[in-house]
Amino acid sequence: MLSSIPIFPAQASTFAADVDKLYFLILAVTSFFAIAVVIFVAVFAIKYQDESGTQVGAPIHGSIPLELAWSFIPFVISIGIFAYATIVYFELVRPPAETLQIYSTGKRWMWRFQHINGRAEINELHVPKGRPVKITFTSEDVLHDIYIPAFRVKADAIPGRYSEIWFEPSQIGDFHLFCAEYCGTKHSGMIGRVVVMEPRDYQAWLSGSDGQPLAARGQQLFQQLACVTCHLNDGTGRGPSLAGVYGSKVALANGTGVVADDGYIRESILTPQMKLVSGFQPVMPTFQGLVNEEGVMSLIEYIKSLPAPAAPAQATTAPAARPAQR
Amino acid sequence: MTTTALPRRTYLNHEFGLKSWLLTKDHKRIGLMYLVLVFLAFVLGGIFAAGVRAELTTPAGDLWSSDTYNKLFTMHGIMMVFFVLIPAVPAILGNFVLPLMIGAKDVAFPKINLISWYVFLIGMITTVSAMVFGGVDTGWTFYVPYSTQASNTNVMVTGIGVFITGFSSILTGVNFMVTVHRMRAPGMTWFRLPLLVWALYATSLVQILGTPVIAITVFMLALERGLGFGIFDPTLGGDPVLFQHLFWFYSHPAVYIMILPPMGVISEVIACFSRKSVFGYSFVAFSSLAIAVFGFVVWAHHLFVAGISPYSAMVFSFLSFAVAIPSAVKTFNWTATMYKGAIWWKSPMFYVFGFMGLFLVGGLTGLFLASLGLDVHLHDTYFVVAHFHYIMVGGAIMGFFAGLHYYWPKITGRMYNDTLGKASAVLVFVGFNLTFFPQFILGYLGMPRRYHAYPPEFQVFNVLSSAGASVLAIGYLLPVLYFTYSIFKGQAAGNNPWGATGLEWTTQSPPLPENFPDQPVVTEEAYDYSKREIKVA
Lengths: 326, 537
Prior knowledge:
The complex is a heterodimer of chains A (about 325) and B (about 525). Chain A is built from six helices and twelve strands. Chain A is α+β, with helices and mostly antiparallel strands. Chain A has three domains: about 10-35 and about 65-90; about 100-205, Immunoglobulin-like (Sandwich); about 215-325, Cytochrome c-like domain (Cytochrome Bc1 Complex, Chain D, domain 2, Orthogonal Bundle), CATH 1.10.760. In chain A, the strands form three sheets. A five-stranded mixed beta sheet of chain A has the order 3-2-1-5-8, with helices on one face. In chain A, helix 1 (about 15-45) runs antiparallel to helix 2 (about 65-95) and helix 4 packs across helix 6. Chain A is elongated and about 95 Å long. Chain B is mainly α. Helices cover about 65% and strands about 0% of the residues of chain B. Chain B has helices at about 20, 25-55, 65-100, 110-130, 145-150, 155-180, 195-225, 240-275, 280-295, 310-340, 345-370, 370-380, 380-410, 420-445, 460-490. In chain B, helix 3 packs antiparallel against helix 7 and helix 8 packs antiparallel against helix 11 (about 345-370). Chain B is globular and about 65 Å long. At the A-B interface, helix 1, helix 2, strand 7 and strand 9 of A face helix 3, helix 5, helix 8, helix 9 and helix 10 of B.
């Protein structure tokens, strides 16, 4: 019975072992200091005990060399830990260039995961082993937090902006998914499981969907919301062309620039005047209330799919090519 | 064995009746009045904690409803942070001993001191009434947008209570600061000040500079919740992360309001019971100031996974490591103080031993959380819960108890049972470790905090934790019994039962209403034990 009680979490992502190495290193260093101090306190307390209470101690007032030593040595060790921990951190927060994109929204008290081929799931997340996965997510109400202990990743879901986590699963199995930011009544019920599958099984699982691909859904919205009337792909519209804009640097009317990432596109749809593109009038209305978070995510996926204008083939078979008809 | 009767005229018996207490301007009586309120808050907060621990003995949320559970941990946090930890040492012990330690008749502004107690009382009544009439469930951190939009509990009333209580803290800080500057006895130079005075001074600095920020933050929260101002709500152009910055800009330094004064107490007790001057006096004194100053620039380490940029996370991680150094320096100095001392094993010293052990663990686990790559995994798990309880309960409350056992004979004029005192220290130490050590393991396993129900594999450590909490409760109950007995039947203590240095031990116990019969004059350094002939009770 006792053997089934875990005392250490599974290492199911590529960086889990790195995080654990850092943990054991700090554990070793801090244990050394803790045990040393405890031994000194215990030895002094016993060796110099005076039961009468009437003796006085030796007239020692301090020592500058000792003070400098025990300020400086812990400081140097701290810097070492800081540097190492920061290196591990940058590994955790910087996704590689090629990732499998998944979108997610949290709301009280459930997680919805949206795969770009259209398959969606609630409180379950299926991912393939051995492929970097990036989850872009937000919250529809209060703060939440995606936490997968076996992967050692965590980030808050914040209403009004995107957060991002990435991981590369390294072990087949089922793992806990927790909401780690208090969100009210059923906070502890906002949990689920992450299912890591062989890539082949994952593909089979994905194709068991009747949902429309995200980009295609985005394209429909793009028509329905009449985005298409201004954002012409040839750049002659009242709004800037969106072809190839994703990930590029955009010059703004206020003279600064911004990289057109998920967050910028979301912001431009919901609060268009915030970062106006250079050379355009502030004529775009806000789409706040007209499109939900999932709609915004499919629009982003659609914009991502638009090929850059310089691409040799004018029209490909990708769904992205179609809006050029206008 | 020196005296058998209490002094004839003391601050306790020179006037009688409820009115003589409620209108008193005597810092010693005000300190005791704070003790009454803080004790009530501690009992209330402890009951809430018992409710939390009882629920967590089983994985299913089966004892309370989710909403009740959420209210229990919220109200536990609010009572303990704002009404126990922050006022415990400054408002109770600080009020009682600060003027005595510097040879003053009272604090600089006795009327303001009384006002600050009433402000605290009003704040506490407001907050407790919010709890009685329905409770509050936002967590003690009041994070938006949950607190502004989603929670339908008494957020406003609780916020107003916390807002009011903050002013009591500011007034006490101002009072102490002016007192230290203006009221020192002749010969009491800055570098002759006992280290508790330095610690209280550094704390006052944080109280004065930090507390207005929480007042402003709670005020903005009220504007948004009550009137729909768009400060934090993203749909109105606000930013929910801004709230966290503002909240922790106070609430992180608030941790130093809780721990600095107990650190000062530890310096006093360790010097007295080692019969030696504190090793590296000026380093210990300045480390208090360093902690107070550095404490203001580490707040965003609470936000490492809350959407701040990786580069600002890096800066705050570095600063958080830096703030650990002065605490380490203090710990090494305390240890060195015992070297070649004449160590007298009495109850206050047992609490110091306990403090050393628990504060070490609490402080060092802070390094895990300051480490960016690890904090991503540990943030908002039970590892954090364990860490801050080691600091706030293991450190601050243990230090407060050390101080209470040390100054009890001065406060009441009577001794308590030393064996029971030691037993209580041991019980608290053992119970505390049983309660909170398993939570480190739970945290690394990934159990998030504030969970009403949890996966079954976490149960063993939760049961251990709850079992430890009952031992801890007995450890805290014991002093209530022997202190109560001591008030009525305790042996008279005499002026200086511990054979300690310091002006507070030169006057009678309990002290005169005006503290000293004549203006004391200081002619020696603090903790000058080497030249003394020590007599003890």
